[in-house]
């Protein structure tokens, strides 16, 4: 019997041709066996087996046979494979004829590969219930062979368990069922079905996913911390919050307490909790899934200590008592104690008050006070509770005391005298009152009230306390009765006088106690006797202290015509005021003065252009009311009427101020003339001439004064001149620094130098009061003002000088004192101020007195001797080595610095001397010479090494490019340096406010230019090109400057003042460009390096050799050095010099200059930042 091979799997696709090989041993053919092929396929869900070939006879179409049994070959050839026909199992059998014995058998499974269809998940929108089984079924149809189906959840890489169901036909679906018990965490989970088959291209698979919605039971929590305990202070609102996580969501909850229903809201609020609200609260939520959720919350009501003690107790002297204090609190009290409010030193800890052998002094109020710490809403609060016990000790009253001790009553008013005894006595005492030497009682009780005091109420009042235990000591006070001033004679309510009347006076009389004083006021301002008035006062006093005062105000004085004539300015309200400690009273008179009209308008001119309506205003002061009349320059009265060429409007401004306005409609050339305003009343007349002219430039301001100053500003005020008819007239203040007061002459501090003659400007807009800012502290400036409008500018006003205030004051850096020798050393900071050292010593009584005053301007150290103090009897013998620690509390010397010109009015604070010789040695021997020498040596060495390295590099570079330079055409144009210069840096403040185009004027039109670029009256006005700051504030970026000031120091500091000559390392460089007009070649700000150590003298001398001697000319460039190339960019060649009148640079300026100097190559240019970092040179080109 032949062997049967395993089933052979053969995959094919529809339309293909395949060969099923059936091979056996050729010897079998000699037995004349029966050969046949069988096919088993599935149709309509049923398996059918049929013969395909028997021997070489075909039983079904589309099959062929390779029939060569003698060779052991019986192959089945299938052409144009189809799924319905050929998908199935094929069996090749060789049977022995007649016996049925299987001599050979081969089974082949032919699979016609057909990709499966897209997977379908059922249900498509799955909704599950927590705890109940859920089946997710993924099915696919049409595949051959049956595909593999896997389930995945979310992003998990491993597959879930599933039960497969094979279709076994392309018409039957294949499915995978994932069955599970859903949990809350599965809500929203994404389940993914993956279908794969070998009929699909390698790596390809189909996917489908669904999102699971899980309805879960309520999860309930309460917002009350870890222990679910809500602690709320009594009488505060308690908010019980119930948080429910459920699906479906619940619309309400049930709050219960002790099984009883409380509320249905998620947030249950108890507006004002009490102790009865304490307990357990349960929140229950049910969403209909059959399992309600709940959480328990404990409400703990916190309350401050509730203290209870007996209200009062009575005891006998010598007795001992114990009182218990009952305290209830949540949380428990931290402390319980007994105190006496009237006796701060009395204190007993604990709840028991124990008093032994009490005396009368033991009587009083005792308070039991408890404290606990309440933690409410995350914060801790200390709460107090108390209760009082009144202890009464039976004893007689002590000494009486009357308050107030010095009673003063006002006539007609009430006063209360209060009597008390100390000790008060128990039982409660009675009080008896009597007056002067009479023993008759005038009142009883602790309070004695006088309802209406009068002068005979004055006297001595006595009070005494008594009870059944005895009498106390009496007390007495002296009662005084004061009287408010009362008029005996008042001034008349009104009076009318004529201008020129003589010998006029008014008087008023009053009396009061104490004797009143008198003041006279005119229109609310006090009248002082002298130039215009004289005041004569007559005073007297009677036996009871009532004073009578008569005061006469006489209109006499040397400033009056004829010494006593009434003038129009006397008009006003005069008030006579009498006052004393009780009150003040007054009498008022209105004085009217009849006088002829007086001119009150400011200007005798008005300005209007042709075609405008001119208003010529005339204002006069007169009484009685005047009549106005207008006439032309020929004295002819003008015809005025409404709607005509001339109109007149008269207005009453006040009782004695009147205005008349002449309106000239549509003025023409003939109207430009002088007009006369005549004002006439019974006292006379006034002719005022007013000129009508064309609009023009303004007149200069007058009466310029400085009204206030600070460390960096000065406030100016002036009277505006006529504005030329232009309402938009603005004002500018030109100012310049002229020096620093109190400065030593040797100090070469640039900040103290004067500004150039042109100065700087400040825009004051339309104001006649102007605060000029950004000034340096403690410097003198000269100011002058001018007016500008569209028509032009005025002349400058008169100049006025003002000095800014000091900002801070220097103090000694260190003061050291050696008690053994009396040697004192004072280390001083560098300063340009003329300072005075004020030295004080202390005597044996601890009093300070002046020892000496020494001028210290320009000094760095001051040394002197003071007398050594005698040791006090309690002081032990001082050895040679005095310990500073032992004398620390015995400061003997102190020093302060004062401004020499101010005496001791402007001074810094005192600095006390440090004790001990070692301070002096270290300060004097090391700090000054050693430190300076060390620093200078290091700086010199570093600079020397840097110069050598740069020189070597320059030589190598010159050799390398020598041939290239020889090939250059001498007439070729210079190549511009390719390195881009850094952007300009500007100061943060605006120095020249006038250059901001703040006037909206036609400045761009040369014909209309008011502020040109040419000097006007010695002052330069200009515009800043390319948006640069003006006024010479053309500063480079300084790499190591930490100052906010344009001058190297803070605007609010005295940095520039404290730099001594060469002491602060000031670079000796002209700073002339700081305050002059804009110059493209110049850069300010080099004074920013006053903070740095001094540079080498050689370097300074070399710089000084080529600096401009003209303090305000162009910045001169350095002479050419051997190891540096001349740069064509020191100047802007080919451009016109806008300041051609300045001095020209001497030397090599006109020579052909070499090319290629970079922006950071030269230190000698005067523009590089003087520090050890990479240097940046900033240049600007003005086009």
UniProtKB/TrEMBL annotation:
Its main location: membrane. Residues 1-111, 119-211, 218-298, 304-386, 397-480, 485-592, 597-693 form the Ig-like domain. This is Uncharacterized protein. It is found in: Membrane. Keywords: Disulfide bond, Glycoprotein, Immunoglobulin domain, Membrane, Repeat, Transmembrane, Transmembrane helix. Residues 697-807 form the Fibronectin type-III domain. The keyword Repeat applies. The keyword Transit peptide does not apply. GO terms for molecular function: cell adhesion molecule binding. It comes from the Eukaryota. Residues 969-979 have a biased composition (Polar residues). Residues 1139-1149 have a biased composition (Basic and acidic residues). Residues 960-991, 1127-1149 are annotated as: Disordered. GO terms for biological process: anatomical structure morphogenesis; cell differentiation; cell-cell adhesion. GO terms for cellular component: cell-cell junction; plasma membrane. InterPro entries: CD80_C2-set, Cell_adhesion_signaling, FN3_dom, FN3_sf, Ig-like_dom, Ig-like_dom_sf, Ig-like_fold, Ig_I-set. PANTHER family: ECHINOID, ISOFORM A-RELATED, NEPHRIN. SUPFAM superfamilies: Fibronectin type III (SSF49265), Immunoglobulin (SSF48726).
